[in-house]
């Protein structure tokens, strides 16, 4: 016994090794989480400035002063980039995934702890380089988060397209490398470090989501990396991968023969899977929470797994639907359209299974569950406009309007954020050993759910009424005047929703130090993280290696002593 | 030891490749536990797995560059003199003889990497016997295959550098035409990956000089050798693309 315990290696004690350059996946997970938290506030602040500018275009704003059209594009670019890369990619996968994937499969750590630490610090460097673009001569780039060439490939195409754009591309390239290292670690960990008895089909759906997301990242980020290298070469070494013969401000540029469409193909080959990189972990969390708080097994576990796989595979063959406007053979557009609408099938399977899980359940409406249900709601609301945009004939009038902004914010932005909130409220007790305040959580949920609907639903109407996206100023445009009340409403809703996030921040940090102590399994969940101490010890299971006997969602099992059977419970009856 | 507690101690070897069969309820084991430091066999398997996964992303990088190459090659471009679309792809005059020599050097280095891999497997297998006092296995052939691989690798990179010089002498610079841009880009990205392999081999050589246990070195050499073979195959693909799809 003594010999056994001697194996349980203690964590490092020094501050630097314990909290800064830590090899512990839990600390790294929290580092990612707080990096994303910092990033989300930067991104949110930028969006607020944009919303203010849209209804009060002459207002002098804090930190940025007067907003000119190019300033607006810079805000738009940095908002999109920071949100997509440093929030939606970072928190759900790298944050929660790092913390809980090893524990949920019964591993003491990730497969390669040093690589894991490197992944985080590389991501951190990428974030610093990205923020540095704000302070470059000319400011941040204005080519949008999609960085379309030739705007992004020429250094004199606008303010911010000099050093700012180079920093932007460099940051993205560094981020790609960090994500590839992370994906490698995640996949190896799942395939090689599962505890005894943890078959693939006994893994929680969160782990499946993290695995498939890692595979998507592995295949997609390399392509974005090569696209970025070509862009840097075009900008700095005079090559013509993306730049055709162009004249800028009366000056003939030295490029010839490049194809802007090449950038779009490479970018969207990454960009579409990126949408699923953002949303799949949220789907995993929603599945886990719906089952836990409905006290029912997840409806159709295998179907859920296959649906995640199908979404992952289909996600790689639909990138062309972002390019219907860019000039494309109608035959290709038709093929991309059909494939895109096919994604509706696994998405619907997931939705119906979530509803099936809730059907006739004794639901515990606690804050994590509210957010999980909110996730499903937003996924449906945002997803339903997908099949519209998947059809070229409808996409062409809608593509450059606020309709698309409403669509992708609901499904990719807010739904994924709801996944993160759900994960935060659910796993907070395990991460910090204390409970979050339930009342504040509910108030935060109500404001955030209603607020985000108030912001993004009207955008669909704005788009159908013809309000273009990416333009900075609508107050002088005659045909949009009747839409201004709706625009003002959206901005006011944004004020309220952003203010409501203060409730979350207060709850997060207050509960971290003052919240009531949490038990090891406060939600009566079944998965492995709830079998270990709160917060988990350095090696997760304090010198033990768990053995798994059950699937992840055995709730309300007939004949069982309690209404849930832990995955590690050898005495529990098997439900299936 | 066989208790019905939620967590049961099992041997570390039970970890990994988990889930082949559900355990017997109430079972359990004794011995070591998973502390993140697996034995060498497991570590080798894990690193080989990681290598295969990592090479997948490397493959994606080259697939994207190759598809960009093929798309760009077939793309007509606007000619401002005639006001029409023309094909402006200029086939690069590759220094074939030099590239063939480079290919031979890399092929030879792949072979020596394989010999180094097999050599160190043998050494690792015999290490327990050799450690028995009074047991001698005679002189093992200690040919420095690893060092030779590094030398040949440097030879390949030097050859590639000379090929670049030759291209420049023929008037093909990075920004001369789309075709020459791709030649430089593909060879450079491949070269960077090869330099990574050389650095790892040098690390293995340094570790060897420090008389570290042979099992650890074996893992490094094994994984790097596979990586090296992959780099050779990748080069054949790039060379074939540049030559046959000019």
CATH superfamily of chain A: Cytochrome c oxidase-like, subunit I domain
Q: What is the CATH topology descriptor of chain A?
A: Cytochrome C Oxidase, Chain A
Low-confidence stretches of chain A: 1-7
Return Rg of chain A in Å: 24 Å
| Contiguous helical run count of chain B | 5
Low-confidence stretches of chain B: 1-37
Number of strands of chain A: 4
SSE topology:
The complex is a heterodimer of chains A (576) and B (246).
Chain A: H1 2-7, H2 15-20, H3 25-55, E1 60-61, E2 65-66, H4 69-88, H5 90-104, H6 113-132, H7 163-192, H8 205-236, E3 247-248, E4 251-252, H9 260-294, H10 301-314, H11 330-342, H12 344-358, H13 367-384, H14 386-389, H15 392-398, H16 402-432, H17 438-464, H18 484-514
Antiparallel strand pairs in A: 1-2, 3-4
Helix pairs in contact in A: 3-4, 3-5, 3-6, 3-18, 4-5, 5-7, 5-8, 5-16, 6-7, 7-8, 8-9, 8-10, 9-12, 9-13, 9-16, 10-12, 13-16, 13-17, 16-17, 17-18
Chain B: H1 40-73, E1 77-79, E2 84-86, H2 96-130, H3 145-169, H4 178-209, H5 214-244
Antiparallel strand pairs in B: 1-2
Walkthrough of the structure:
The complex is a heterodimer of chains A (576) and B (246). Chain A has 576 residues and is mostly helical. Chain A has a single domain, classed as Cytochrome C Oxidase, Chain A (Up-down Bundle). Chain A is built from 18 helices and four strands. In chain A, helix 3 (25-55) runs antiparallel to helix 4 and helix 10 runs antiparallel to helix 12 (344-358). Chain A is globular, with a radius of gyration of 24 Å. Chain A starts with a helix and ends in a 62-residue tail after the last helix. Chain B has 246 residues and is an all-alpha fold. Chain B has a single domain, classed as Four Helix Bundle (Hemerythrin (Met), subunit A), CATH 1.20.120. Helix content of chain B is 64%, strand content 2%. Chain B has helices at 40-73, 96-130, 145-169, 178-209, 214-244, and strands at residues 77-79, 84-86. In chain B, strands 1-2 form a two-stranded antiparallel sheet. In chain B, helix 2 (96-130) runs antiparallel to helix 5, helix 3 (145-169) packs antiparallel against helix 4 (178-209) and helix 4 packs antiparallel against helix 5 (214-244). The longest helix of chain B has 35 residues, at 96-130. The radius of gyration of chain B is 25 Å and the shape is elongated. The termini of chain B are far apart. Residues 1-37 of chain B have low confidence and may be disordered. The interface between A and B is large, with 72 and 55 residues.
